[in-house]
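Holo prediction. Input below; ligand is flavin-adenine dinucleotide.
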Amino acid sequence: MTVTPSSQIDAVIDSFRVKDGVFAVGMHERGVTLYNQQVRAHNLVWALSELEQTGVRPLGRIAVIGGGAAGLTATAALLACMPVGSSVTLFEKEWDLCPVQQGCDGRWLHPSLYAWPEWGSRAPSASLPILNWSEGRASDVARALLDGFSKYINERTESRFKALVGVHHLQINATRKEISFIGTNVVMTGPYFKQGDSEGGTEKFDTIILAAGFGWERVNDYNTSSYWRNEQIAQPNLTVDRSRYLVSGFGDGALVDVSRLTIERFRQDTILYELFGDKLEKTEEELRRGIAKAGPNLLGYFTRIEAKLLEEAKVSMRGRLRKDTAVTLHVSGTDEKAPKDLRDVFGPGSSVLNRLLTYLLYRCGAISISRRPLGEAISSAHIAHEHVLCRHGCDTKRHLQLIFSDYDKVKLAFADMEDKQAQHPTRYWAPGYFPVC
Ligand SMILES: Cc1cc2nc3c(=O)[nH]c(=O)nc-3n(C[C@H](O)[C@H](O)[C@H](O)COP(=O)(O)OP(=O)(O)OC[C@H]3O[C@@H](n4cnc5c(N)ncnc54)[C@H](O)[C@@H]3O)c2cc1C
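Structure of the complex:
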């Protein structure tokens, strides 16, 4: 049996702790992916279970806020590990579990492609003990998570599990470890559930796990749908016209949409194989070495390696450009931290893969870049409002202010989390730690 040093458990607990007994999963971490959020959920439950088993801190009555990938993984892991006498209540704001990715047929989810070109980053399976899944459409991944989750509600656990959906009122008082809520109980029958009674109240918990995501994406005047809602931008225009689009932003959401709008028959799962063919592994090896030395901004590095490593991919990309769209990447964003320059797009704010694709598109002259204020950029390029896609990230601070009734008491802890970025998506639990259902 492996014995984990208590200092490591304490460090993990500290990285999630908002206040005594109140923990948050990844809300202020950068480079957030569904897989990373699940690993964080495993880590937190592992550390809490270790404290329970060594008598340091009982889990007691547990609340999990948020029924997305992180909340479902944490809840399932708790159901698998928690001792008799503990119970878990799951609160979900929407009317179904995993509502963000459900039904999303147009976006591809891969467990680790965002870490590309790291070793093993193309492996299709998440290989997680709790709620495992493999790459696929976001809707398929949501289904795998929900199917997996239902297996944890069984004869052993059902009397100690309660879930409420449609929780449109929820407030945490972190100081008192109390949750005020109004929601509707559900009765799980396999992956689906029946609606039970609605109820409201204020209840005390011993352990509160906040897994409520990052808040809705920032609203804008152009009604851009959330990233996970189905849209048609990757499909060819069925008119003879060439459509103009503007994508505003500089993170992964924006860069993926630029690829969908500019690369013909673009698929996130095949693009690397199509661009690099049988040179993919060798290219990855060189990229791994080069990126380690290149520093956070990759524009200079890509320029240096272009002739040797990227030339064939560039030629291949040139043959793949969509003829039915004209795309402007608006890099000025809306806040002061936003890039003012093309170079800034290649900073550490997005994955290497998305930066590389954007670099190739830029070198093929496939995108225009605008640094003007948003309104001016749209009108000067004659872009219809329905063709403006604003990907300006989520307003997490506002989200947290609405959740905590004593936000002033927890805001420093959240600022610290944002500063330290300490919830590493490294697996701390030993293989076999979580019983598989
Ligand atoms: C633009 C964009 C692009 C992205 N692209 C990718 C990608 O390509 N690949 C990838 O792996 N990840 C991507 N992500 C991240 C991905 O969306 C998350 O990692 C994933 O959804 C899992 O996170 P989660 O469970 O922590 O949060 P969420 O999925 O947001 O789930 C949180 C849940 O909490 C609920 N909730 C919120 N507030 C409350 C409340 N007050 N009370 C009760 N319930 C509440 C929500 O309804 C939701 O169901 C992207 C995110 C964005 C914004």
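The pocket of flavin-adenine dinucleotide is lined by residues 26, 32-35, 37, 65-71, 91-94, 99-100, 109, 167, 170, 211-213, 217, 227, 252-253, 391, 394, 403 (CB under 6 Å). That is the main takeaway for now.
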